[in-house]
Amino acid sequence: MGILSRGGQGGVTLGKVLTYAATYDGKYTNAIPKYGAERRGAPVFSSVRIFDRPVKRHAQILQPLEILSLDYTLVPRFYPNDHFQGQGSITLNAADIPDEYFNYTPAKLGYVNIQEIAKRHGLVKSGSTLIGIPALGALAKTTGMVSLKSLHKAIDKLFPDSQYLQANHDAVEECYNETQIVTLDQMKQMDCPMSERRIHPIVRPMAGVAGRTSEWRTQRPELKVEACTKCMKCVVHCPDDCISLDIDGLPVIDQYYCKGCMICEAVCPVHGIIAIETLPGDDKDA
Does the model's pTM come out above 0.70? Predict the structure, then answer.
């Protein structure tokens, strides 16, 4: 399965707890996080494998059929094309089913406002709501891949002295009970909602006091389409969330806000991104 989150939400820790819980259920597991820019708000992807037999593969899952997303805007960014075809599931941190999810065809979709549940239980630290552990309750309800008993056991094992220990237990239970699940057939019969509600701040490129952030760069990235393997490393590593995927899975660079740090060029394994010299603020390059 794939876990999508942003830096600071607890997605990597979530994956670790999940593997412990699955082990307590008698399963074989591994978890492989994929970090980009290590800062709050940057996209983070974790691959988790859970099987009844030993896990021999240690690699990222490119098209997971089970997805848990702590930020519902990330699934369309990482997987613009529907690859479910009536299989698997999506579990979302959302109060309603976002409009764009009606383009996907998982066997079932679970959603719950994890953000609000975590806040009610006091899971707030340094101004950030800790939603990673509570999200496991929603995942268990949607997928059934781990038991609640094993989740609680894993939480006790990993965080025995945490001041948030009981709050996490309570939030997991509430998320499990409050998660709404709809099947693919039910989604086909539903009208696409017009809701534009957002349940938590989303990190997006934006102009600051210095104006457009591309105005001080001296070079910009340019994609060599013929070389791109669609590995998504540039998307994950961009420190300012300026790279998304188009409908064909190819990177699209927001030249208006790209600072020209060229991290994407450095991490591209096939040299599919090159640096183009430019004058700071040159509108021809935006």
Answer: yes
